[in-house]
């Protein structure tokens, strides 16, 4: 979503980016209303709309003209919009996986938050005092993050840990 916004703002207000963003938000809303997973027919209907937007985007973000090549080797430079278009086409299954798999989130906010805490700790302290301290911090944060994602109460998870016990998801 962030990249679609960026291309809209920086790359000549390409209309297809707004259409794609609106479609992805609609799919997310409909998927949530359906309980987290869409049926095969509805999923295919959205995939066709996704592909149609990408097909129309070809006119706004054409591939670079190979005839302008001046003996340089390698790939010709592409615009950010073109690169995004090619990635959305190549990774369609990954981009739309959230509508077919209840365990896949629409955003990657949880993953970004997991990384952010380490950066905040570094900014506050300037650094970790030792490699072992950094490892312990990461181990604890990883455990708490996993517990949160598995819907285990964090206070209960810490209490169990201090008593030498582990939540059910760790044992299975």
Automatic annotation (TrEMBL):
Region (Disordered): 55-77
Coiled-coil region list: none
InterPro entries: Transposase-related, Transposase_IS66_central
Top-level taxon in the UniProt lineage: Bacteria
Annotated ranges, domain Transposase IS66 central: 2-135
Protein name as annotated: Transposase
Highest classification ranks of the organism: Bacteria, Pseudomonadati, Planctomycetota, Candidatus Brocadiia, Candidatus Brocadiales
